[in-house]
Write a structure and sequence with these properties.
eight-stranded mixed beta sheet; TIM Barrel; 10 helices; alpha/beta; two-stranded antiparallel ribbon
Amino acid sequence: MIRVSIGTASVLGLCRIPMAAAPTTAYLMVGGRCVMNCAFCAQGRESQSSNGSLSRISWPEFPLDKVCIQLRKAERQGKLDRCCIQVTAERDSYQQAIRVVKEIRRTTPLPLSIALLPADISQVAELIESGVDRVGIGLDAASERLFRECKGPHWDHMLSIIEKAAERFPGLASVHLIVGLGESEREMLARMLWVHDLGHGIGLFAFTPVRGTALAERPQPALAQYRRVQAARWLITQHGARLAHCAFNGRGALTGIDLVGWRDALANGEAFRTVGCPGCNRPFYNERPGGTMYNYPRALTAVEARQCIQEMGLESADACLLP
């Protein structure tokens, strides 16, 4: 048996639910209650959330062989661009994940991602050798202080794995970061620059309070804060922006961008779409249908893109020519 996100299950024909946007990546989950105790995670060791949930999504179980057959059908029908396996740090979940990777790889040529906390670089190597083409590493926190508060004591170990992955497997990893754990925007931009300079992709998430977790009462980040971080990520990765191009106030909030034409660079709305591995759109992972859209799971209209730029709350005077 394997857990399947409810939206993925619908795309695969394993159940029927109404969807405002269908996932373009199939999301599967391996492992049960985690030995880690991340304060924001429904699968954390001391979480009171259902063990069938992750973020605000439910993950019903289905037989793995049936899921693989449906993955192959959906890929052939052009419904999916990728498959992604979420792995909790249960005692034997890594071995389970290797078995699942090999089974999926025998069944379908879909590009395959895996999101986990690797114990060491040898696990990253084994996953890639088994058929994974992208490894997502959940650093999550922008600073050591927040990592220790929200995840635990292994900050230096995680940074070491991320750096080793850049050396041995360039272009094959993404680092996941969560906006809204208590970091300043300056801290988040500095961490994104570090990740980008290593050659890794950036998977960006908005903190989402989940009932039963230690951070259940913490609010989501202000939309203006998230929009500014989204825009900064786009300008960093697509237009070479650095911290020197950014102005911050005393609280570390972004107040200006010294790149002429930065608004034009954001006008197509791509900065405000879900970002992770290629083909990932994670519909409503951080949102409720009809609620505030932190990450758009589809292309934005021109009106929506203009609205997102306005939501950043920056003055129009902060403008200059992009390289």
